[in-house]
Amino acid sequence: MRKQQHNHTADFRSLAKDARALATATAEVAENKVVHARERITQAVESGHEIYDDVRQKVTDGARAADEYVREKPYRALGAAVCAAAVLGYFFGRRR
Questions:
Q1: Residue 5: in which H helix or E strand, if any?
Q2: How far apart are CA 66 and CA 54, in angstroms?
Q3: CA angle, 63 as apex, 62 and 66 as ends, to 5°?
Q4: Is the pTM of this model over 0.70?
Q5: Tens digit of pLDDT for each residue in 5-23?
Q6: Collapsed DSSP state (helix, strand, coil) of residue 30
Q7: DSSP assignment, residue 26?
Q8: What are the pLDDT digits (tens) for 55-79?
Q9: Of 38, 35, 40, 45, whose CA–CA distance to 22 is shortest?
Q10: What is the dihedral of CA 9, 10, 12, 14, to 10 degrees?
Q11: How many CA atoms lie within 13 A of 94 on its CB side?
């Protein structure tokens, strides 16, 4: 899971770096369409950073809440896991 998260983070950073490089490379071009596209890329990168930070925070908060719940009520969490496994086993174990 951590490796996958690291890969996504690296991909996002690489994309942001490439977008910034594109915006820098086209800085001297003064055509209206290029200027507008460069502004949109810059805004998209900034928005992507904000969204990434928000999602990362929500996932971290959710993981902490789940961890807390399991520590406070381990038998309920175990029961829920067993029920979920039984339901999944029933559906995937049926022959057609």
A1: helix 2-25
A2: 18
A3: 85
A4: no
A5: 667 777 777 877 777 777 7
A6: coil
A7: T
A8: 889 999 999 999 999 999 999 999 9
A9: 38
A10: 160
A11: 6
